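Archive entry. Fields below.
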Amino acid sequence: MSNNYVNDFPILQKTMNGKRLVYLDNGATTQKPLSVINAVQEYYAAFNANPHRGAYELSVKATQIYEDAREKVRKFLGAEKTSEIIFTKNATESLNLLAYSYGMTFINPGDEIVISIAEHHSNIVPWQQVAKAKGATLQYLYVNEAGILTDEEIEKKISSRTKIVAVTQVSNVLGIINPIEKIVHKAHSVGAVVIIDGAQSVPHFTVDVGALDIDFLVFSGHKMLAPMGVGVLYGKEHLLDKMPPFLSGGDMIEYVWEQDTSFAPLPAKFEAGTQNVGGVLGLSAAIDYIEKVGSSNIEQIEKELIHYAIPKLQQLPFITLYGCEGLSKKTGVISFNVKDIHPHDASSILDADGVAIRAGHHCAHPLMQYLGVNATCRASFYFYNTREDVDALINALGRVRGVLGYGS
Amino acid sequence: MDLSEIYTEIIAEHNKSKRNKKQMENPTVILKGRNPSCGDEIELALKVEKNIIQDASFTGVGCAISQASTSMMIDLIRGQTIKKAQLLIDTFLGMIKREITEEDQLEILDEAVALQNISNMPARVKCAVLSWHTLESAITMEEGKISESSQSSH
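PREDICTED_STRUCTURE:
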């Protein structure tokens, strides 16, 4: 049985290879509801102009649309001020902004940057660059066998040498929710700033930056119904204020002389050049849609789906599951392997049944090495998925080994 | 897409077969080939003497397509001259790109013709060609060594 949400997503009406599309790659990107597609279309059909520049009506309207979206994001995240919301291209750009502006400025030789082994490459590589350039050390928080970050590990790794703690709130491979409150508490007790990668959390449950006392939060719009090419950086005002600009050029200035420039105040200081206003409007429409469904409802739907799917997967003797021991601190992400079958073959065979999953290393080489696997299959759910989708996955998995000449 | 077009019995057999998948003693050239986007990684070992590939084998991890393609390639090149190996490479890559479609031209590929339909699965083409590109680089390295040694002997 399908739910009513499916009807709002044009792409989910499609058939693939003659079968209903069962889209289970929401950790990579979500599909877009018609309201988001229409919002972007309407922007270019009716309001397009360069914001913050012209004194004519369309430009004023474009500015208003852009700044209204900023206010919507502020409220959505529970941030104090709109100046604390910076629009970027995606979570990766937000993390690079932090690495190059905050990291390169405030990290000194001998300092430590703490990240977890379960980070996406986007929250590893920029910090490697900073550590190398500044003579700092990159320290890893390792998860236990169940994929969980323990209190002992947090206590052990975050020390007086730690200046930045950058961790994902939810692992993109395992879907396990990290204990952010404990990490923030420990990091602040040693005077470190905390950067949270919210790419896999903000779309799936309520993240309140004020309540969590997070210093910085990053996420991508396209993983939460919005178009690709728009992301967000939240930062506490006093921290963003003392950071130098990342990209420079138009719109981020106050005044430019031949040899010097004074920079615009927040948030413009970090938004050089013409921004993705259509995309930002799409993000605004995406937040409207998510609020209509309700973040706690989304969390509940995903929980029910994994509680339905995991026992069924456990009954299949040829399936190995990763990070599925405790389901209380987990979003709708399931990583697994099919015995004797490489994930790419599994994915191609499922594709023939219209089931779209991700196969590979999920941009998390260090975690794969740590788990001792070369690659995994990943099914990741969103609120528009149904038990019927889970059944389609289970049925299709039953076929995989046979196609490659292995018995069940 | 018809799965049976791609995952044929020959592919399944070569994927499971360990005949060509082993370490080699005293190879003359070893080369790693990787598909960074999907994590397929093979290591190809050749023993080349007097322009003839006396032996070839591989190790590594990857999907059925990359494993089977590598195994079939090794069956084809073992005992062949470098020149013949290059012809096989050109023919195989030409087949995948659909530039070579004539049956009599493809005949030399023997079982490897089973991978002809992989172009219907664009996401998997890179798996099929990984070992062939690796072989081409290995041959280039080997030829470099030969020309270097012949130059120094003069």
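CURATOR_NOTE: The interface with chain B takes residues 17, 341-345, 348-349, 351-352, 359-361, 368, 374-375, 403-405 of chain A (CB under 8 Å).
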